[in-house]
Amino acid sequence: MKNIPSVDLADFISGDPVRKQKFVEEIGRAYEEIGFVSLKNHFLNDNLVDELYKEVKAFFALPVETKKKYEIEGLGGQRGYVSFGKEHAKGKKEGDLKEFWHFGQEPEEDANLIDEYPDNVQVEELPDFNKTGMEAYRMLEKTGIYVLRALALYIGLDEHYFDHWASNGNSILRPIHYPPIVEEPKGAVRAGAHGDINLITLLMGASTGGLQVLRKDGVWMDAIPEEDELVINVGDMLERHTNNKLRSTIHRVVNPPKEEWSKPRYSIPFFMHPRSDMPLNCLPECIDDEHPKAYEDITAGEFLYERLVDIGLIKK
Ligand SMILES: O=C(O)CCC(=O)C(=O)O
Ligand SMILES: [Fe+2]
């Protein structure tokens, strides 16, 4: 992609220590500067992406009453359907112009997390919806684990430091539908400016443009990946854990010009979360005289709860 540094996961897994180190430096530097990269040679193949978009479009095309059957009270929107306008960016009162679905973790039995994670919601009308969603979930999770290994090395931790926390983690795959805009949005946008909550976000190409990233100098830049790339950015949990070394960059999805209001937009981010008991305490490797500890100690579960309240998914 033009505006955002491009990295190649094949370098990291090549077995060649020089290429591996090159990947570590490239992604680490990009995350210190802009917080976003585009990544080639990930594990999500094009056919699976096409299948997933087909299922996702079919789901959002169902009648609203059918979709609302899958909007479950009491889960803070963490599984199933979340209806139009419900979520808003932190600190903003207008709801985003979107509806979405959440697929969550189906942990391995020996992880002892079965009781902690709510079950995924099964869509009866579409026999392949859940299977396709979870296949994509696994491929994105696998890609994310490699990215976190590279970041662990960059920070000076053991390569496998994140493996335990991120495997069987509380990650979410979120297909989003931004419907055609039918009336003057009055301050509402498709997605208000925000930083992501989680460790890292992996985003496959959207059906159309609109995603913008806020550069350090205050300029908004379009972020549109090439066909075969994933956009991967740092979220607030990783920014906090690395004491602001790696940057969770503010981004948004703008409304199209009026001539294009009739076009819907679809996109499918994967929010990689750790297990809820992971301490996000600032890492000693990231604290020194110039960078004193910037945040209180907190676990991932506590941090997530606070943020779900901030964005309107949990009502206190
Ligand atoms: O729709 C997109 O392209 C990105 C959405 C996003 O930033 C988010 O849901 O956190
Ligand atoms: Fe985001």
TrEMBL record:
The keyword Iron applies. Residues 168-274 form the Fe2OG dioxygenase domain. Keywords: Iron, Metal-binding, Oxidoreductase. GO terms for molecular function: metal ion binding; oxidoreductase activity. InterPro entries: DIOX_N, IPNS-like_FE2OG_OXY, IPNS-like_sf, Oxoglu/Fe-dep_dioxygenase_dom. PANTHER family: FI07970P-RELATED, OXIDOREDUCTASE, 2OG-FE II OXYGENASE FAMILY PROTEIN. Belongs to the iron/ascorbate-dependent oxidoreductase family. This is Flavonol synthase. It comes from Planktosalinus lacus.
